[in-house]
Design brief:
Blueprint (H helix, E strand, L loop, with lengths): L16 E4 L6 E2 L6 H13 L3 H4 L8 E2 L2 H7 L8 E4 L3 E7 L5 E7 L4 H16 L8 E5 L6 E5 L6 H5 L11 H21 L4 E2 L8 E3 L5 E3 L6 E2 L7 E3 L2 E4 L5 H6 L1 E2 L1 H17 L15 H9 L19 H14 L10 H13 L6 E2 L2 E2 L13
Parallel strand pairs: 3-7
Antiparallel strand pairs: 1-14, 2-13, 4-5, 5-6, 6-8, 7-8, 9-12, 10-11, 13-15, 16-17
Helix pairs in contact: 1-6, 6-8, 6-11, 8-10, 10-11
Bound molecules: adenosine-5'-triphosphate (ATP) and magnesium ion.
Magnesium ion binds next to loops.
Length: 380
């Protein structure tokens, strides 16, 4: 987005996380409509009591590991065990002495911000427990080493399954995409509605949605998450941190962070799921590099909706569901935060879309016998 006056890339990879220092931290009031979702939020708060057991996650505290233990688990941080790398550092697959398979993230020694993110990540994931949030198993603070130990997510990130697919990967079917959207929305609903005080995630993107063997999604990376707003406040002011292409425009420009900033980022992820295009893709021609800008002209004409769909779907989706998914996405991407929906309403709408029985193109790499040609699909 052009609204960033300056940004500092923390990434070794192509996608840039941005940091713009815009001064003081404060809290103040702004509009936040939506009666239906407000009611749901009240329900959420009452449900929150005794929540962790029902969320399918135990709230076992994160364990403290010694560096030697984690070096042994990853066989000396062997290159062969390297499963990814982000702005924070490298991620290795490992096996603890208990036999548990884990992902070990090692903070690279290149700045203080990473250390702050480390502390926030440990605090947040020690307090937050939900089946759609990745589980923090432990951490290591030996000497100047900072490592995080997570449950291992065997299918990697959503980003790995949407873009630049290698030959061994099947494109995600429409129903898998809807399932992932619902799970990610439920994770966000937990942060916004069930956590008390609410948590603004601030780093929602396809690289931070990790997948288990059944493509159940879990949100990861809470190093940028912020508590609040509380009481009558609807925003906190803070330095602008996030990932280029996913940040809400008002947050990028003013540093005013609200729950609606996350809704905008969620809209960008929905758009990636629908189109199979990256939020920012510098390999595309000018005008197509920023996904949200590219999509705006399509939003205003329903007849063009079908042209937004990822070509890898090969037309195998119910057109009515596609239309509804695009309508939800467009609402999330409203320029004005007050017009964006609350997460509770998004969960309800996506659950409905995900419940629509449609033929699967691929299930575990096997073609479904019910497969219909695109012309036979629902075209309402
Ligand atoms: N718990 C995990 N289980 C399996 N793979 C993981 C896990 N955590 C991270 N990874 C892999 O490591 C990659 C890098 O993750 P990481 O969170 O460090 O960076 P990122 O989210 O891609 O970018 P950044 O942190 O700079 O915003 C992920 O894309 C994913 O493939
Ligand atoms: Mg990440």
């Amino acid at each position: 987005m052009s609204c960033f006056s300056c940004y500092v890339s923390r990434r070794k990879k192509d996608v840039s996380r941005v940091e713009v220092d815009n001064g003081s931290r404060s809290a103040s009031t702004a509009g936040n409509g939506g009666t239906n979702a407000t009611e749901r939020k009240k329900e959420c708060f009452s449900e929150a009591k005794g929540k962790n057991a029902r969320n399918g996650q135990s709230s076992t505290p994160a364990a403290s590991f010694g560096f030697r233990e984690l070096a042994a688990a990853t066989r000396g941080f062997k290159e062969a065990n390297l499963i990814g790398e982000g702005g924070f550092g490298r991620v290795y697959k490992g096996r603890l002495s208990t036999g548990e398979v884990v992902a070990v993230k090692q903070l690279s020694h290149d700045g203080r911000q990473g250390f702050q993110e480390f502390v926030t990540e440990v605090l947040m994931l020690s307090l937050l427990h939900h089946s759609n949030l990745v589980k923090l198993i432990g951490y290591c603070t030996d000497g100047d080493q900072r490592l995080l130990v997570y449950e291992y997510m065997p299918m990697g990130s959503l980003e790995d399954h949407l873009f630049d697919l290698t030959q061994d990967k099947e494109p995600l079917s429409w129903s898998s995409r809807m399932k992932i959207a619902v799970g990610a929305a439920r994770g966000l609903e937990y942060l916004h509605c069930k956590a008390d005080p609410p948590v603004i995630y601030r780093d929602l993107k396809s690289a931070n949605i990790l997948l288990d063997n059944d493509f159940n999604p879990k949100l990861s990376d809470f190093g940028l998450a912020k508590l609040g707003p509380v009481g009558d406040n609807t925003h906190v002011s803070t330095r602008v941190m996030g990932t280029y292409g996913y940040c809400a425009p008002e947050y990028a420009m003013s540093g005013k962070l609200t729950l609606k900033s996350d809704i905008y980022s969620f809209g960008v992820v929905l758009l990636e799921l629908i189109t199979g295009r990256r939020a920012i893709d510098s390999s595309k021609r000018p005008g197509e590099q920023n996904l949200v800008s590219w999509s705006r002209p399509y939003f205003s004409d329903r007849r063009k909706f079908v042209h937004m769909a990822d070509p890898l779907l090969q037309g195998l989706f119910p057109v009515r569901c596609l239309h509804q998914a695009i309508a939800i996405t467009a609402m999330c991407l409203q320029e004005q935060p007050k017009f964006r929906p609350l997460i509770g309403d998004i969960v309800v709408a996506l659950e409905y879309l995900a419940s629509q029985n449609i033929p699967e193109t691929h299930r575990h790499g096997v073609r479904s016998p019910q497969l219909q040609s695109p012309s036979k699909m629902d075209r309402n």
